[in-house]
């Protein structure tokens, strides 16, 4: 399964990843940052769309081996206005405004655990 954790620049995604690296998941999970592949100077929308496709393909290959992927990256403009419950995208929105970094990390961890739970 692919979990995408998005947020504005400096919103705390890397802090969440640092927490998630120490979680005992009980299943194989890889934690990656979208930009870890390297972002070229002048990267445009076409580059970003291609990078998204590569990350999804990569996650699908890992999923075939039973490894889940948590991908952290910035909010893409076409997703920015989606609301929880929107049929166009299954999204869980965590309002982090009044939360400490630890509370945000625990909320993301709980969201991932919920997604991994058997139906």
Structure notes:
With 119 residues, the chain is α/β, with parallel strands linked by helices. It has helices at residues 13-20, 45-64, 101-116; strands at 2-7, 29-33, 68-74. It has one domain (2-116). The chain is globular and about 40 Å long. The mean pLDDT is 88.
From the alpha carbons, calculate the radius of gyration and give it in angstroms.
14 Å
Q: What is the terminal separation in angstroms?
A: 13 Å
Order of adjacent strands in the largest pleated sheet: 1-3-2
- How many helices? 3
SSE-based structural type? alpha/beta
The largest β sheet comes out as: 3 strands, parallel
Total domain count: 1
Question: Using DSSP, what is the number of strands?
Answer: 3
List keywords for this structure.
single chain, 119 residues, alpha/beta, 3-stranded parallel sheet, 3 helices
Short synopsis of the structure:
This protein has 119 residues and is of the alpha/beta class. It is 37% helix and 15% strand.
Walk me through the topology.
Layout: E1 2-7, H1 13-20, E2 29-33, H2 45-64, E3 68-74, H3 101-116
Parallel strand pairs: 1-3, 2-3
